[in-house]
Amino acid sequence: KKWEGNYADVYSSIHTHNDEGVYGPTLLGTVPDMDESSALSTLQAACDAYDKGQGAWPTMKVVDRIACMEKFVRQMKTRREEVVKLLMWEIGKNLPDSEKEFDRTVEYIYDTIEDYKQLDRDSARFAKHGGVYAHIRRGPLGVVLCMGPYNYPLNETFALLIPALIMGNTVVFKPAKHGVLLISPLLEAFRSSFPKGVVNIIYGRGRVVAAPIMKTGRVDVLALIGNSKSAIALQDQHPNKNRLRLVLGLEAKNPAIVLPDADLDLAIEECISGTLSFNGQRCTALKVLYVHEDVVEEFNKRFADRVDALKFGNPWEPGVMLTPLPEPGKPDYIRALMDDAVAKGAKVINKRGGEQSENYIFPPVLYPVSKDARAYQEEQFGPLIPILSFKSIEEPLNDMAESNYGQQVSLFGQNIKTLAPLIDTLVNLVCRVNLNSSCQRGPDVYPFTGRKDSAVSTLSVHDALRSFSVRTFVASKDN
Ligand code: G3H
């Protein structure tokens, strides 16, 4: 239905000349600027469609729900070019990564459908214990509020939305602030594939549209990938937190540990992609490097040169890794972290580190970074690389144990006798240990989660179906 209220402009941080010849952020389009009452009507639509578990969607046969999802993904695939283009313009993601985000999302939907079929086959089995038969199934939870982040506005929004939907929940989702337009080419696919009220979209600022929805107490699941501050603020609005299920992918400060016997060529390449793919704007990015003192000098020199050789440009230009940052305040924030680290004893060890333009700052590589520097303490979520050296492995291990985060670590070394006990320790500090490779979320069939403040619940194809449902069973006696 055509929106009849106000619209908000959406700008790209990529600068161009406008019609008047003025050079600046490019106006890409407009989206509805909803107010509280429009957001509440959207929630009402989701509640009506769920209808206390009696609605057409939560009671629909598995095969029919799958047919809706298949119809959606078929239509989605026809809009690849538009969505990829918007990914580049809205968030500055380079062409190969934008294409990968789209294709990965399509694959995620197909894998989810397959996993859901398997779940349904499993639920056809009966268990029997102590003379009681149990027919165990999984049922939906209710109304889900989904909010994805700007760094994966398609993929991570859908990593919440798709499993929530297929399990029979109804959904209100808020597109990410940057990456909001790329939902538009998919609206018709949503409308024609799912029954009315099953998928609902809210646009606008979180505190205007999402907070009032939470305040009603009618949201059963808060599914958010983003920062802890937003997650906590939204949870706090809910009048009965015990009834609210959380599916949260939050912040991280994933370290790399480079041992003295590491293959430095490999470690450097993995640390380049780990720290700087999509300009370090990934929760899984490597955000601090610990390098053993025996190899730190050589590592730093080669790493810094390698960073300086990276190409900055517009996302569609070939070979470009560093691209404009979508958040207007980000270059200044990164500079503030850099200046603070330098004031506390670090040096910028690469020649180009800190070169700044209106929408970018060239990644500063900082060494040695003090632990009281903001670059060490904050999740930079951008192009800045703090390096620390260590003598004893206890140093990074203690830091990880004290950290508020616990998502992943990368470990570089070659001697299995050293690595094996270390891995046993590391898996109790984080949820994924990447051996001689950078941190990452995929392949999406593996569990994606974290300890401490990094996550609540688990995402991935397999686990997300469980995160968005509850186990139920019908018991009957053997008589
Ligand atoms: O921002 C966090 C994302 O889940 C990172 O995913 O490792 O596939 O880039 P990725």
Q: How many helices does DSSP assign? A: 15
Termini distance?
56 Å
Bound molecules: glyceraldehyde-3-phosphate
Query: What proportion of the residues form beta strands (DSSP E)?
Result: 15-25%
Helical content stands at: 25-40%
The major pleated sheet works out as: 7 strands, mixed
Shape: globular
Q: Oligomeric status of the shown chains?
A: single chain
According to DSSP, the number of beta strands is 22
Q: From the helix content, strand content and strand pairing, which structural class follows?
A: alpha/beta
Can you give the mean pLDDT?
97
**Which strand order do you get reading across the main beta sheet?**
12-15-16-11-10-18-19
Radius of gyration: 24 Å
Protein name: Glyceraldehyde-3-phosphate dehydrogenase (NADP+)
Domain Aldehyde dehydrogenase: 28-469
Pfam family, one: Aldedh
Family: Belongs to the aldehyde dehydrogenase family.
